[in-house]
Amino acid sequence: xxxxxxxxxxxxxxxxxxxxxxxxxxxxxxxxxxxxxxxxxxxxxxxxxxxxxxxxxxxxxxxxxxxxxxxxxxxxxxxxxxxxxxxxxxxxxxxxxxxxxxxxxxxxxxxxxxxxxxxxxxxxxxxxxxxxxxxxxxxxxxxxxxxxxx
Length: 150
Description:
Order of helices and strands: HEEHEEEEEE
Number of domains: 2
Strand order of the largest sheet: 7-6-5-4-8
Radius of gyration: 17 Å
Number of strands: 8
Mean pLDDT: 94
């Protein structure tokens, strides 16, 4: 799994301060042009979860900023929660979910392992598992999903 520095993602530096100022964490940002309009996908997380009102609040905050930056009024912006079993697209996402349970496909053992995110950095993640804490380099991770025990 690759670690992509969030600050290198286009428009991240423009949107992240607005989103964090509202009390949410920016998990994913994708901005792309489709024919003549702009498509924007934003995924946010919050300490108490994310509901429709939270998504609406973030949408209203970032829409004018993106319209100004992209010099366009023709824009579709979608703001969502990460979902119950989000598949991570970037190893940097570990930092958005401290204390959450994840399922990790570890290539060293060719199997899923479960644990709670203790900490993460640019090279590895530390999980609390039934057998104790384990640090896994991102290079040994093939896939990660949030795990909902419900």
